[in-house]
Write a structure and sequence with these properties.
It contains 6 helices and 5 strands. Strands 1, 2, 3, 4 and 5 form a 5-stranded mixed beta sheet that branches.
């Protein structure tokens, strides 16, 4: 999902993108970006521990330094994904970021231990929605809307 959004954003002339894993992302990366797409699987009804760790490590270093920057959220959920989306929205509110779209939640309906542990295949229609998020964010940046 994140890769689809990133590739779509990168197709906008003049827009540079970076796709980073949460564990590898630092506060310096947050400060250097003009916009963000936060993508996380839902894990036990919440964002993953690695995503929470990223926010914990980056939050205060970026606080009051990225106000007004645009962001979007992608969640891959086994059930509803709403709590994971709420967690990201609360953090983004603290950072004073500006949401450019409602969170995109792709629900895989994975409810058994086997389904939860299996690799997920995201449907083309859902990947198209992810690409639309990336393209919208990039176009808004390129036009100076965001």
């Amino acid at each position: 999902m994140a890769e689809a959004a990133c590739l779509a954003a990168a197709s906008e002339p003049g827009i540079q993108t970076r796709l980073l894993q949460a564990a590898d992302t630092t506060a310096a990366d947050v400060l250097a970006a003009d916009a963000y797409i936060f993508a996380s699987p839902e894990n036990l009804g919440a964002i993953t521990g690695l995503m929470k760790d990223f926010f914990d490590r980056s939050y205060y270093a970026a606080l009051e330094r990225i106000n007004g920057r645009p962001y979007a959220t992608l969640i891959c959920a086994g059930s509803d994904g709403q709590n994971a989306a709420r967690q990201i929205a609360r953090i983004a509110t603290g950072w004073r970021l500006r949401a450019i779209a409602e969170p995109l939640i792709v629900c895989t309906q994975s409810q058994t231990p086997e389904a939860i542990q299996a690799a997920k295949v995201i449907a083309e229609g859902d990947l198209a929605r992810c690409r639309e998020v990336g393209a919208t964010l990039a176009a808004g940046l390129a036009m100076g809307v965001f």
